Amino acid sequence: MLTKAFIPYKGYYSSPFARWQGSFSNEHSIGLGSQTARNWLKTRDISPELFDYLILGATVGQPHLFYGGPWAAALMGSQNIPGMLISQACSTSTTVIFQAAMGIETGLYENAFTLMTDRCSNGPHTIWPNPNGPGGQVISENWVMDQFNNDPWAKNPMIQTAENVVKETGVTREECDAVALRRSEQYADSLANDREFQKKYMFPVTINISRKKSIQVETDEGIMPTTKKGLEKLRPVLPDGVHTFGSQTHPADGNCGLIVTTKEKSAQLSQDSSKDARVVSYGFSRAKKGFMAMAVVPAAQMALDKASISINDVQVIKTHNPFAANDIYLARQMNIDVNQFNNFGSSLVFGHPQAPTAGRLIIEGIEELADKGGGYMLFTGCAAGDTGAALVLKIGS
What we know:
Layout: E1 6-7, E2 12-14, E3 18-19, H1 29-43, E4 53-57, H2 68-76, E5 83-86, H3 92-106, E6 111-119, E7 125-128, E8 139-142, H4 143-149, H5 158-169, H6 173-190, H7 192-195, E9 205-208, E10 214-217, H8 228-233, E11 252-261, H9 263-269, E12 277-286, H10 296-307, E13 314-320, H11 324-334, H12 347-350, H13 357-371, E14 375-383, E15 387-395
Parallel strand pairs: 4-5, 4-6, 13-14
Antiparallel strand pairs: 1-12, 2-11, 3-11, 6-11, 7-8, 9-10, 12-15, 14-15
Helix pairs in contact: 1-2, 3-13, 6-11
């Protein structure tokens, strides 16, 4: 259990998530994320020179990724600090925040900034030398799409892992459609009263079109209207499956950032120190080969055990749910109501830019928990290679 690492209330932001091949599709993700973080810090009147370390989360290759951490720090305005890169597919944000918290806990540094950013759009095409290739042929890889469609260990696409869990546990098409509809309704709650909830944390992104022209992206792109009848009309993605394009997530682009610091500094940076969130514990897991959706449960249980609490002690639950079956399996195994978590949205609805996905969900969870008066928040989600990661945060004593 951790006791010393805190996230100041409002010490975070998330960009809107843009649809695949949308407004962010031609922007360098590290450059865009660093500039957005710099703009956000300026609005909060926080000097980038405050930080003594930066942890960058990114999973989709971009030019100069080799220099990612220190380069992002310099672009953000923290020119005199080092940085490191963490890449762990969908678990990236969870691990980045935990590593920052561990640095605070051990006294390695005092004020860390975590920046998670990715662009699934226009993913890189990599060419590898093939000494055995006849006629000088090479090995090529579409970095984004080939990863989604081919786990080199399990030998299947990601959606197949969800369908494997469906077949073993008896999850139905009707259940998946019902969860997809419920998540859409929950996302709609975040848009109520002129996007009152989203405006608590969402920060607009500025895109420079030319030297004289720029645009601001203030809201999510790519949100599909969802109805019961509309879901029923969709065909399964796999011929014998239960998931449709309505009950699985979609690739997206975006970034987010959080400050992780000491309790004393958190109180100084906070807009309300009674709502500062302590990083309590972390959990990780690996499910059996080809059953990624199962990994969310042991990861969550490990985080709960490390925090010395049970699922019944948790006030807010957020999940990365690339497939509806993830949430259904979690709810069954932990004996909770699938309709009563992921309030205000989830990656099933607003998309999955990889690195920042969990970060945005954790930020949303902090805001929801603060509105409820504090307590514990659990985030859990699956990641590539049948792995999962979870995080427990707490607001209040």
